[in-house]
Design goal:
331 residues; mainly alpha; two-stranded parallel ribbon; 7% strand; binds tryptophanyl-5'AMP
């Protein structure tokens, strides 16, 4: 089975990214042919600094390798190295409804934040569809906030196949049952995010242990003292989910284990568990980030392998659409 996912090179990676997505990428290597893409082209759709973007790609590559991606067992590459992505994006625009793009939650949220709403921001989900469809991937591991984007890429693939003949694989999302939406520790009605959450409520993967414990100790928990999940108690529910994912157990087991413990000692326990969970990643990251040539080499080799796969799909798509030189004329 082919599994594809993408991650933005912007900002520092937080616990939500780690639990909701990165952890799944690592598992994908066991489950199938894993292809992971650092999406620098997507990052250009909002205001950004070019030099910082280059650095952030390497930060993200080092983070993914530190988390356990192994270039011998997956394809890890930078989107901007494979020109087939923007090309396929353009071709897929012809089977994408303008109205569907207008309905995208992330477009609405992001466009409210910026003075110049770029056309790139509007087309963002089509490029995301191209990322996945170029590889004929069957599965897309993501957090819950990407559900709508994956549904759209399914629609795009179906419409393409209907219009031009069976060509593209219709992918499905893989959203984890627990940990698909990690919330801000200070404002637990909001998801933890690079751009929108509070600094104190966001745990970064590279945070020092003391900062992690401090943030968790001051996490907003609701009134009461029962450690039980409920929609009215988003704060404590969020911490229970984090604990369940890290301990590789069920949320119900966490509730049982900490029954009667009180919020204070539970928060301390979550803090200790998160510190222990992230420590090895932080250590490996420091080592890997120091060798930029090695990181570039991994990305370069990944791009070579990605290009071979994407080229094949593009040749079929172009052929079906009657675009470019006729297939026989291609050397
Ligand atoms: P990005 O870079 O914003 O996020 C990367 C992954 O992290 C997940 N995530 C979370 N999971 C749980 N709790 C949270 N609080 C949380 N915040 C983020 C996201 O769901 C995502 O899986 N558009 C994508 C990147 C992309 C992509 C793709 C993904 C581009 N092309 C093709 C899949 C397939 C994005 O901005 O992710």
């Amino acid at each position: 089975m082919r599994i594809f996912s993408g991650i933005q090179p912007t900002g520092r990676k937080h616990l939500g990214n780690y639990i909701g997505a990165i952890r799944q990428y690592v598992q994908a290597q066991e489950r199938g042919e894993a292809i992971l893409c650092i999406v620098d082209l997507h990052a250009t759709t909002v205001p950004y600094d070019p030099a910082a973007l280059r650095r952030s790609v390497l930060d993200t590559a080092a983070m993914l390798l530190a988390a356990g991606l192994d270039p011998a067992r997956c394809v890890l590459f930078r989107q901007g190295d494979v020109a087939e992505h923007p090309e396929l994006c353009w071709l897929l625009c012809s089977v994408t409804a303008h109205g569907d793009l207008n309905r995208m939650h992330q477009f609405k949220e992001k466009s409210a934040r910026h003075e110049l709403v770029s056309a790139g921001l509007f087309l963002y989900p089509v490029l995301q569809a191209a990322d996945v469809l170029a590889y004929r991937a069957e599965e897309v591991p993501v957090g819950a906030d990407q559900r709508q984007h994956v549904e759209l890429m399914r629609d795009i693939a179906l419409r393409f196949n209907e219009r031009f003949g069976e060509t593209l694989v219709v992918p499905r999302h893989r959203i984890p049952e627990v940990g698909a939406r990690i919330m801000d520790l200070q404002e637990p009605e909001r998801k933890m995010s690079t751009t929108d959450s509070t600094e104190q409520g966001t745990i970064y993967v590279l945070d020092q242990p003391s900062a992690i414990v401090k943030k968790l100790k001051s996490a907003v928990t609701d009134s009461g003292r029962d450690i039980i999940r409920s929609p009215e108690k988003p704060g404590i529910s969020n911490l229970i989910e984090v604990m369940a994912v890290i301990g590789e157990t069920e949320s119900a087991d966490v509730e049982l284990e900490f029954d009667g413990a009180g919020y204070g000692s539970f928060k301390q326990a979550v803090g200790d568990a998160v510190v222990e969970f992230l420590a090895p990643v932080r250590e490996r990251y420091a080592e890997l980030r120091g060798d930029e040539a090695a990181l570039e080499a991994v990305l370069g080799e990944g791009a070579e392998r990605a290009r071979v796969l994407a080229r094949e799909t593009l040749a079929d798509v172009r052929g079906r659409m009657g675009v470019g030189p006729p297939p026989a004329a291609v050397p």
